[in-house]
Amino acid sequence: MSQKQSKNIVKGRNGGTLNPPSKGDPSPNPNGRPKGVRNRSTVLREFLEATLKTKNPITGQEEVLTVEQRMALSMIAQVLTKGNVQAWNSIKDDVYGKITDKIESNLTITDLDVTPEQRREALSRILNAKHT
């Protein structure tokens, strides 16, 4: 451990100290990732775009499909044959988007001390305002 002590000692978040390299010190990773090495998302995309001659589980006919299409058909087949609810929710979210219900209100604490009839009227006004 014959590293030079840096003048810029920084306190670490777990109580230790960090010694950033001084100006001119060699980088701990001087070369980085070698040129031409593809990242994981590129490799996965290539595999998903590869084609397979396979039997379509819905139509039953032999087709040439990408791996991605085959995986989507497999999810649909799981929903249809096994009633897989997780697959169905995943398909719905991908196709239609996740449902996010947000109700905004400008009610204050003092508004909570009201009669049930007043609550119904207020709720009716809020719902009618959302639909117009």
Q: How large is the share of residues in beta strands?
A: 5-15%
- Lateral arrangement of strands in the main beta sheet: 1-2
* Number of continuous helical runs: 4
Sequence stretches where pLDDT stays below 50 over 5 or more residues:
none
The Cα radius of gyration reads: 30 Å
Q: What does this protein structure show overall?
A:
With 132 residues, this protein is of the alpha+beta class. The mean pLDDT is 81. It has helices at 40-49, 67-82, 85-96, 116-131; strands spanning 10-11, 17-18, 51-55, 62-66. Helices cover 41% and strands 11% of the residues. The relative contact order is 0.06. A hairpin with a 6-residue loop joins β3 (51-55) and β4. The termini are far apart. It is flat. The chain has four helices and four strands. It has a two-stranded antiparallel sheet with strand order 1-2. The chain has a two-stranded antiparallel ribbon with strand order 3-4.
Please outline the helices and strands.
Elements: E1 10-11, E2 17-18, H1 40-49, E3 51-55, E4 62-66, H2 67-82, H3 85-96, H4 116-131
Antiparallel strand pairs: 1-2, 3-4
Quick structural gist:
The chain is built from four helices and four strands; from the N terminus they run E-E-H-E-E-H-H-H.
Keywords:
132 residues; alpha+beta; flat
